[in-house]
Write a structure and sequence with these properties.
Blueprint: H1 11-14, H2 23-45, H3 51-56, E1 61-63, E2 66-68, H4 76-89, H5 100-111, H6 120-132, E3 136-138, E4 145-147, H7 149-173, H8 187-205
Antiparallel strand pairs: 1-2, 3-4
Helix pairs in contact: 2-7, 4-5, 4-7, 5-6, 7-8
Amino acid sequence: MLRVEVIVHNAKAYRWGRSLPCFGEIVTRLHGILERFLNAVGCLDASFVSDDTLEDLPLPAQVGQTRVGGIDFNKPRMRQVAEAVLALSTSPTSPAGFTASDLAQKVCKMNGQAEADYGPRRAAYDIKKLRAKDMVRKIGTSRRYESVPEGLRAIAALLVLREKVIRPLLAASLRPQSTSKPNHPTPVDHHYEHLRVGMRDLFTALGMVA
């Protein structure tokens, strides 16, 4: 049984009003926060990326009259932005989406960067690239943005595939088999071992290893 609840520690900070007549509106807003959080968690749990997405991501695209570059998850900056977008999508502190400044602050906080290295201007350009690929959308006419469910699934899948599947498998498949084994292997450890052996056989058949 999993219990999920929303708790407001400082109602004054949200500027929703704190008198009794505002109670109904507060409950409605809290319900919205909870629904957005659960929807985001559902997207991250059931991540998915199509082959079309893999083909289209690196290609330039357009937002309105502005032409922007493609998305390359092999570049650290774009991976950091993607991770920050995932974090902001489940953050209850951003009930009305996030701004370019919010994204820049999250990237800097997660990676220990200075704002001079990654500021709101760069974040705004990266948001445009995500918007061009239908991963993020603008909220009305405001300068706030929110993640698209399909975009969240694709971002999560791409990060997991690169960081948790491709990188460790390549590293394990191209080095001699280790004689040391985990004392208490988990189901994930067993899956990695089976995949590692299978990948070595596949690489051999493709002529990628001796």
